[in-house]
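Chapter review: from sequence to fold.
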Amino acid sequence: MNRHDACYRRLFSDPRLLRDLLACAVQDPWIDTLNWIGLQPVPAEYISDDLRRRCGDAVWRIPQKPAADGTPPATDLYILILLEFQSQPVRIMALRLLTYAGLLYESLLQHRLIPTGAPLPLLLPIVLYSGHRRWRAPTELSALLTPADPALARYQPQLRYLLIDEGALLQAGALPDRNLATLLFRMEHAQGIDELREIVHTLLDATIDPGFEELRRAFTLWLRHVLLARVVPSASPPETTDLQEFNMTLAEKAITWTEQWEQQGQAHLLEHQLAHRFGPLPAHLIEQLHSASATQLEAWALNVIDAATLDEVFRG
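The token string follows.
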């Protein structure tokens, strides 16, 4: 499991963040029937090693509240989240989720977590996407299948997932204020150190009450090992798990890290321009872009104007 996936799993193991995540994307009444205090992570060992490397998967079980008359709820809700951090949406994501859903149900039956003869529990498949390009892949499996006669179509597998495209939600501007997931999205898409410091300050205010200590540590680890590593890869992250100390380091390093952040922004822009013109870039060229100096990036950007091939872009 890579650091991004590990940090996100740790963040969303807190029921308050998972609840705020759904509050950003779901306005349906059934949300109010969930008992968030009873949130429990579900082991995902049923997923093969290959699938685990390709997707950051996480599963939670949330009991439902009893009815107003005291009647016990019919079933629990299982939330299956795939954490997608690629710059390009995955076209067959609905198919991938269908596989995960089947494996989850088989695991629940195998470990006898469902009473014999009881119906299978409800499942909410979610794709949480933090890429900067908008998600255009189909959100339901039927869009991937060959069109069929209606009499045959009813026998085809069905699955639809809830897409949470962080960038699209931020762009729409309708996210709730002081929502923990909103603050996470804003940090993911921050444009510089000053903006990041402002968001971290708001996060500190939102988590000042007792009981938020572990969540603040989880945010700090994510900021250190994931966000800074991406936007300021040459920086030495502060050795702290305290969010307040981390924010003080941001203030101390603001000038130096701002310059490096802007340089990484130039590298990302050039990467997208090259991919748009020449197709997906080899891994070694992407690494070369993000380790280049500002002078090298400027020279390659000028080469793009007349270059007919990737080799011509990187000449000299």
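Two observations follow directly from the output. Residues 257-313 form one domain. The chain has three domains: 3-173, 193-252, 257-313.
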